Amino acid sequence: MKKIAIGFLALVYTATFLSTPAIAAVKAGATCSKAGITNTSAGKKFTCVKSGKKLVWYSGPDEAKSAATPKSPTSFANLYQNRNGIAYAAWKSTAESIAAGKSNIVNLNIYLGPTTVAPKYKTPEVALALVSQAFYKYKTPENVHVIQYSIEDIKWAEDKVKSIVNVNDYNQLNGQENGRLVSSNCEANDCFGAKQVSTNSGIAFILQGVPKGSNNDPMVEARFVLGQLEAHEFTHAMQRATVSGQPTKEWPRVWIVEGSAELAQNLVMSYKSYAEYMKWRKFDSSRLYGKNSKITAALMTSYLDAKYNSDYWGSVDSYYAYNLGSRIIEIFVALKGPGIMLDLFRESALQGFEPAFQSLFGITWAEASPIINKTIVELFQNGE
Question: If you average pLDDT over residues 72-91, what whole number do you get?
């Protein structure tokens, strides 16, 4: 067992990009060759960023209104017009929140199964702390337990949970998972899944099935080497903490629950580099791009109207709750900052989705959803 007590963890935000020596004078808005490279000219640092379909030099916040960086949307009224600025606005606001915040995790325990080979990502405490920092204005679970196990250590993992909580809490957690609290992360011969569960008293668990082989996931490096899996699951812990002890009206829409966690995992683990964020954003959306993309206006209409798993898992790829959901939530973060991910979860649970949406955005869902539909379809059809 590795036990880490964390009262404060402030990670200073420094934007880091791949660098290239200054070879010639550059100016904001001029074309460049590769996203992420930098150049210094006349005392100013320029970064190569994507603006629409072009790569151009951008010199920082003081040039935010220039052609170098797409304008960020400020409301649904100009969302479609400024759609190329969505990704940068979401990334920038999250990086700023991490820079301003601190981790509020008090007690973190990490357990590795006796026959389990340690995951390649060795510092889950960093991933969890970054999530807490990004949402530093919100309630963070104080007691967190990460249990990592291979298929041979399922029984050990179950016993570990039982040693931490009382019988009633264990039965509550196990019942929520249809009697497969630990084993549902595993298949017949290996474990690939992870889940987050919390007791009514606020103890948060991340149950991580550690794979021995590969399942050909294009995001495998991000999830299992770079900490995105741990960040994803702890985002769920933050979601649950917002409604802990309060009577809820409904469970938030699945694309809010999973889309927020899928987006947060990349935003927080790539907070130092916009280029890195865009790299994993592209990987995660790889099945949704191009002329043969299934992301059409008709599909989006159905998707945005869906409330629960049973509404559309029969006709829509279940993974769309994650990758497509993250792109919808990215719009909300671009408009309101990262806290909107938890605000929307909480208020949807307490009020119901449509009243919650209107109270947070000042526009009805019936008015906003066609704009979201048009924006998402256009971005995917253009490979953005």
Answer: 97
